[in-house]
Amino acid sequence: MEKNIELLKKYADKMGLEKPATRAEISDFEKKNGVTFSEDFKEFLLFANGGEIFVPGDVFFGVNDSSRYYSISREEKILDKIENSVPDGMVIVGKTNFGDPFFLEQKSGEVIEWDHESDEESLRWKSFGEFLKDQIDEALEILGEENLAD
Q1: Domain boundaries, the chain
Q2: CA 113 to CA 68: how far, in whole Å?
Q3: Torsion of CA 10, 60, 85, 125, to 10 degrees
Q4: Is residue 22 within 8 Å of residue 61, measured between CB atoms?
Q5: pLDDT averaged over the chain?
Q6: What is the pLDDT of residue 91?
Q7: Distances (CA, A) of 109 to 13, 39, 77, 131, 146
Q8: What is the pLDDT of residues 33-45, one digit of tens each?
Q9: Structure pTM?
Q10: How far apart are CA 2 and CA 97, in angstroms?
């Protein structure tokens, strides 16, 4: 996860990231909403409390409603539309630039991308860190700088 954060810092001019969350804000959110985030997602929130990576790109949600982007709690409308299909224990943490939500599975820490048109899982990563690395690698490839991620 550390390398992912370093790459996000290096390309900060291509991001629209929020100020970091505090440990207290993350803990308060988890308690208030009865959720548990994986350690690597918490690391991301301590770096950026949501925002857009590689504009225009995927959006990640933060833990408070002051974000100029989306907050996890404001995204309940997405869950209302697909709640019968998404497995229990998932927390929405972001969405693609074309509207497919990303969910973090609380027990395993896995991330899934949910196809909003077919209403089913389309991709899965073993961790938020692995997921974020794929997002960064894809963006750097588009920028023609894929060799910098190694």
Answers
A1: 2-142
A2: 23
A3: 20
A4: no
A5: 85
A6: 87
A7: 29, 8, 23, 11, 26
A8: 888 999 999 999 9
A9: 0.86
A10: 25
